[in-house]
Amino acid sequence: MNRVFVGLVLAVFLGALAAPTLAQQGTADIGGRATDEQGAVLPGVMIVLTNEETGVFRQVMSGEDGSYFVSALTPGRYRLAATLAGFRNFDRRSLILEVGKTLTINFALAVGALAESVTVTDVSPIIDVTSTEVGGNIGTSEIVELPAPNRNFFAMVALLPGVQFVPSSQFGNDTIIASGQAQQGNNVTLDGGYNSDDAIGSNAGGQTRTPLESVQEFQVLTNQYDAEFGRASGAVVNAVTKQGTNQFRGVVFGYFTNSALTAQDYFARLNNQAKPESSLKQWGGTFGGPIVRNKFHFFGSLERITESPNRAFNFPARPELNFSTVEHREAWNEMVRVDHQINANNTWAFRYLGESSPQIPIIQTRRTPTIQGTLRSPAGAAAFTDETDLDQTMVGTYTTVLGNSRVNTIRASATLEHWYHGSICVRGQGSEDVFDQSKCPPTLYQLTFFTQQSPEAQGPWDRNYQLQDVYSWFVPDMKGSHEFKVGTTYHYTILRRTIQTHMNGGFFFNTDLPFDPTNPRTYPERFTLRVGGPFRFNMHSHTIEGFAQDKWRISSHATVSLGVRYDLEVSPVDETGNPLFKDPHAYPVDKNNFSPRLGFTYGLGSAGRSVIRGGYGLFYNRTILGTLQPFFESGKFSRSFEVLFPQDTADPGPSRGQFPTDPTLVNGPVINRAYIDALYPAGTRLRNTGEVMFDSPNRRQPYTHQVTVGYERQILPTMAVSADYVRTTGRDLFLQRNLNPMIRANTSRTGPITRVDAFGVLGEPYNTKVWLVENTGKSQYDALNLQVEQRFSKYWSGRASYSLSSSRGTTLNQLDQNFLQVGTNLNLDKLWGPVSVDRRHILTLSGRVEIPKTHGVNLSATMRYMSGAPFTILDTNNDADRNGELFDPLPAGTYSGTALGALQNVK
Fold first, then answer.
1. In which band, very low, low, confident or very high, does the pLDDT at 372 lie, cut at 50, 70 and 90?
2. Confidence class of residue 15 from pLDDT cuts 50, 70 and 90?
3. E strand or H helix at 570, and its extent?
4. Are the C-beta atoms of residues 470 and 485 closer than 8 Å to each other?
5. C-alpha 209: how far from its chain's center?
6. Considering the domain boundaries, does residue 742 fall inside one?
7. Would you say residue 104 lies in a domain?
8. Which one, of 898, 537, 567, lies nearest residue 700 by Cα?
9. pLDDT band with cut points at 50, 70 and 90 for residue 120
10. Which residues contact 310 (CB under 8 A, 6 or more apart)?
11. Beta strands in 370-455 (DSSP E)
């Protein structure tokens, strides 16, 4: 299999090089037609596009039908100059080329001498009349001058319709939800290079945080993107960093706040706790300029952050544990970029971005294992963990112009992360090489909180390497003009993991009372422990992407976009012990992922100010490697795994006022290591008696069907409005079923459980759940997206976006499990309903005003409104369907919470 795969990689990539190719992501295009004043086409017109800030230029000649096209341009402000013997020169300036968009500029030459010129100063067009894509662009002025929570550019992404901003309490982890899909389903690129996390997707935004002052602009594609884009179910975020210009220029910035400007936490105020001294200091600068004017430029940025946000926790059952404190985070972020035009036909660029961000301590909640199914807040020492993180991304690009109508770009990039997240106890032991979580006290999971010690201890690094090649070729006068583009991308990813989580053990209680050796109700009823020592593994993944597309301009009004894309993922998994595989090396590879794309635009009128657009496409999502990790960690056999005692259900003693009888619980919250070591000797390959997760031989990549139709109109020289209807239908989504379902003897929480090989595939007894990852999930998203955009003019700019949407499904995230399964009945109809990211109404308003005669003093504001997220109230004290899962939705009715400040009269 490996030889075949290596041969396939070489064949695809070398085949792409044979027809010169290069990547366009992170660039812009311009095209149009040259005519005389009577409308007759003019072939042979020399057209020169010059970046007004860098002096870098490209030149082409109009074809037999008068058309021209210039691709793979760095976004920015351009000047277009056209010359032809017997006609006056044509000169148009301040054309704004935005990332990922095609600007259409038709022009007419007047008869006259070459020495005479006609200079046009019209405002650059706002809309792309050739694009079927749904989304939008955010430029430098909005990024820098609008208020951004946490100063993260993902807050700006959510200015566009259909996008939700998801701020994070953790440093640099802000992200978005787009088109009703999971936040892990977005694809983030920076300067055309990959900037996503293969382990968790875009759950934490981009892999390496990009400072606001370093971003020139970005494009967000939420639906119906061209065939060159893929590996996403949500949005494609296509960002571009700033570059140096012909002038030395720089920015110094500072952002500071402290407790005087920060409100006291609600729970701290409620419990009359002292207000901690929180603070935020964020400062830095950018500087760029010419190395050689008009040819060679540099740009760099440096940012320093120190932050101490306040945190407060409230424990109604144990008020003495209430506390209010601060976290501490810091970061150094640096970026360097160089761009060089060697000659008229060859340019190269390189960019490095890195951030080191130790966070000591941080305070977070942890979702406890599904045996309890509840979220507990940490208390005491358990609240304190820390994380060290070094993120880096780099990309190099070489672009070659081949003749008058072809462009080739090669791009190589790398995304690197080294991280470790652990408890204060394990961090105090020294370096990662000597960490031993088993030396730390156990975690005590009370009914509503956990205390004594955090169970966290894991790391350390991820690596992704990408090689990309895309070739574009403009063909005029072939029943219209054609913008052909083909390309391929190869990714190699390796994840290395060392996991010690729960090597310290964890005791579960059915009370919030402190442990009392004389009171059986305060004894633990269940215990978990990672046995066998740390779990260490490496995961490798290979991905090939290929695409071909044609933007066919049938006439000056009509454009048809045709494309096809192919995605192949090869992630080797050892299937030893999996009864569904005869050959443990025959891991699934989904080889038929061809996705067609079809779109159209039709311009209304001759001015190019109104366009109707629509399309259909098939879009394959990428498999998050975190979805595959349990196949390594939780197979039938393992050297390290988490075990539950008792395995089937909680010890019934403590809830009845009796002492527990399980050997791991009889001494209270004290680990009986001699007993456990005898059962699970360290250093040997063991039968996993914890939860098992199996791969499916038929596992496939999830995908969506997308249908869109929309209208956009430029109503003023600097204002445009748009409306788009979107339908996204998800199929083959990952959803896990239990091959070893449970039957509880009664509906009580501690009722005895029996397990059965209900599907007849296991062939032998298993002690607990056996999850199978398969493609039985589905979803549906419908939305009406509306937007008004006002470019900066006459001292103001603004944007308003609104989305009316509905998001339904049986699953959302790739590791979702089916807790409503009863025996062989998966009850998928009961799972279908609003998903957690469903927001009926999303409204965003933003704008800025420059105060006249102040040399740039601005007033700006952003406002967001979203409908509340849906939720389901679950009964975790009774097992109504007796399936062994304490995960039963309550009957329809009206419910009110009993805690102070709880929700009331929820229907």
1. very low
2. very low
3. strand 558-570
4. yes
5. 12
6. no
7. yes
8. 567
9. low
10. 259, 262, 264, 265, 268, 275, 276, 278, 324, 325, 326
11. 375-378, 384-402, 406-423, 443-445, 449-451
Minimal CA–CA distance to 219: which of 191, 206, 238?
238
Which residue in this structure is represented by tokens 């490496």?
A: 538
The pair phi, psi for residue 353, each rounded to 5°, is -135, 130
Secondary structure (DSSP) of 39-75? S-B-TT-EEEEEETTT--EEEEE--TTSEEEEEEEPS
Mean pLDDT of 687-693: 92
Please state whether 126 falls in left (phi above 0), alpha (psi between -120 and 50) or beta: alpha
Dist CA 450 CA 453 (whole Å): 8
> What average pLDDT does this structure show over 322-336?
90
Residue 112 and residue 142 in one domain: no
Residue 19 has pLDDT above 50, yes or no: no
pLDDT tens for 810-838 read 999 999 999 999 999 999 999 999 999 99
Q: Which residue has the higher pLDDT, 71 or 112?
A: 71
Q: What angle do CA 595, 164, 819 make, to 5 degrees?
A: 75
For residue 306, name the pLDDT band (cuts at 50, 70, 90): very high
Q: What is the DSSP string of 85-138?
A: TTB-EEEEEEEEEPTT-EEE--EEEPBS-TT-EEEE-PPPP-S-TT---EEEEE
Greater confidence (295 vs 149) lies with 295
Both 65 and 163 in a single domain?
Answer: no
pLDDT band at 275 (very low <50, low <70, confident <90, very high): confident
Judged against a pLDDT cut of 60, whether residue 24 lies above it is answered with: no
pLDDT digits (tens, 9 = 90+) for 156-195: 899 999 999 998 777 777 899 999 999 899 999 999 999 9
Which single residue is written with the structure tokens 């301590």?
361
As a whole number of angstroms, the longest Cα–Cα distance in the chain is: 105
Least confident of 224-238, 622-636, 707-721: 224-238
In a domain? residue 158: yes
Task: Enter the tokens of residue 181.
Answer: 């899909």
Tokens 């009914």 appear where? 447
Please count the residues of the chain: 907
- φ, ψ (nearest 5 deg) of residue 206: -80, 160
- Three-state SS for 613-667 is EEEEEEEECCCCHHHHHHHHHCCCEECCEEEEECCCCCCCCHHHCCCCCCCCCCC
> Do 145 and 92 belong together in one domain?
no
Q: Which residues, in sequence order, are bridge partners of residue 674?
A: none
Which pLDDT band holds residue 683 (cuts at 50, 70, 90)?
confident
CATH number, domain of 233, equals: 2.170.130.10
pTM of whole model > 0.85? yes
Same domain flag for 113 and 35: yes
Q: Which long-range contacts (CB under 8 A, 24 or more apart) does 308-312 make?
A: 308/277, 308/278, 308/279, 308/280, 309/169, 309/278, 309/280, 310/259, 310/262, 310/264, 310/265, 310/268, 310/275, 310/276, 310/278, 311/265, 311/363, 312/265, 312/266, 312/267, 312/268, 312/271, 312/273
Q: Is residue 811 part of a domain?
A: no
- Cα-trace Rg, the chain: 30
State which of 241, 263, 285 marks the end of a domain: 241
Enclosing domain of residue 10: 2-120
Query: What token pair was written down for 907?
Result: 């229907």
Rounded Cα distance between 731 and 322, Å, is 46
Give the total number of structural domains in the chain.
2
Q: Which amino acid is at 327?
A: E
